[in-house]
Write a structure and sequence with these properties.
9 helices; 24% helix; 7-stranded antiparallel beta sheet; alpha+beta; 2 domains; Naphthalene 1,2-dioxygenase Alpha Subunit, Chain A, domain 1; Rieske Iron-sulfur Protein
Length: 364
């Protein structure tokens, strides 16, 4: 007689509450995965740049004269002063400390009195570059020079997204909203990655956007692919007739570990990106996009509806989970992993938690 297989249990609470585990993730996981930096429309002209923080590092992306977008560690190779702040435009990158000057490609161009230094070869001095990919107009970086490409990490995601957002080259950010959540970043990501909770907790989303019974999530490499049908047209909360294919579907591509493309019915592009602050706090950027970034009543209305319903509902859920994880009464329960998958299964959480463990196991 075969023994019954034990159910797969959720991760221990310490993976969401222990500051030491967060530090391991910050130094390892976040430095070895593709992370969102910004949108290419922020760097439209030669010399446009913006600075940002990632995995405890200050970085900046800049557009070269050849049209290439490059990313560098934000540190002068002379005596380590940071080079830029915020966003702007420049012909060359000049260090504020001693005016060492770098080309937009990172090569040292000049520095006061460096010719007086015997044996100094400025061709051997260059800013340290970070791997950068522009993925459908979104800039991603990876601190791991040996990492596989985004297309290898997230197979088929680019092609599928192009079929849902065929006008992606025309889109620019219309709204970017920062939403702080008092929870571990993984709690927020897990909540995003299943719809087991949707019907009970997201009535507007579940009745005015999607058909919950058609919802499913499946892994594609390190992408979690969400698919569902939209609700019947008379129940939709806005006009979905975009003229594009797939306008009657909701789809999402969650790119492990901290970014997601969502396409709402009507081919409305929306993005999430998570920035972990510490073990118990994360900021979620909610992005909405329109042609040329120009005012669009449908996008504004959908963004407002989403912010007032799904976003607010999720904040309460994830913050309650974080409080519960600190309870001495919590024992990790079994995940509801249905072999047939579907909306009432947590197989996506099973995959996420495996990736989470992989990311820290060699460092613990």
């Amino acid at each position: 007689m075969n023994e019954m297989q034990e159910p797969i249990r959720s991760l221990e609470a310490r993976y969401y509450t222990d500051p030491m585990i967060f530090e391991v993730e910050r130094k390892g996981l976040l430095a070895r995965t593709w992370q969102f930096a910004g949108h290419a429309s922020q760097l439209e002209n030669t010399g446009d740049y913006f600075a940002f923080e990632l995995a405890g590092e200050s970085l900046f992306s800049i557009k070269g004269r050849d049209g290439e977008i490059r990313t560098f560690y934000n540190v002068c190779q002379h005596r380590a002063h940071q080079l830029v702040e915020g966003a702007g435009t420049t012909r060359v990158v000049v260090c504020p400390y001693h005016a060492w000057t770098y080309e937009l490609t990172g090569e040292l161009r000049a520095g006061p009195n460096i010719k007086a230094v015997t044996g100094f070869d400025k061709s051997k001095v260059c800013l340290t570059e970070v791997r950068t990919e522009v993925f459908l107009g979104f800039i991603f970086v990876n601190l791991d020079n040996d990492a596989k490409s985004m297309d290898e990490w997230f197979p088929n995601a680019r092609t599928e997204l192009e079929s849902f957002v065929p006008n992606w080259t025309e889109l620019k950010p219309l709204e970017w909203v920062e939403i702080p959540e008092s929870c571990n970043w993984k709690v927020s990501v897990e909540n995003y990655s299943e719809c087991y909770h949707c019907t009970l907790n997201h009535p507007t989303f579940a009745t005015g956007v999607i058909k919950p019974e058609t919802y499913d999530v499946q892994p594609q490499g390190y992408c979690l692919r969400h698919t569902t049908e939209s609700n019947t047209l008379e129940n939709m909360s806005y006009d979905i007739n975009s003229g594009f294919a797939n306008n009657d579907k909701y789809s999402s591509w969650f790119l492990w570990p901290m970014f997601s493309f969502q396409v709402y019915p009507g081919n409305l592009l929306n993005t999430y990106h998570w920035r972990a602050i510490d073990a118990a706090n994360v900021v979620v950027w909610r992005g909405w996009y329109s042609i040329g970034g120009e005012d669009n009543e449908t996008v504004h209305r959908m963004a407002a509806q989403d912010r007032a319903t799904t976003v607010e509902e999720d904040i309460r859920l994830v913050e309650s989970v974080q409080r519960g994880l600190k309870s001495r009464g919590y024992v990790p329960g079994p995940l509801v992993v249905d072999p047939s998958c579907g909306v009432n299964s947590e197989h996506s959480i099973m995959h996420l938690q495996r990736w989470m463990l992989e990311a820290v196991k060699d460092e613990m």
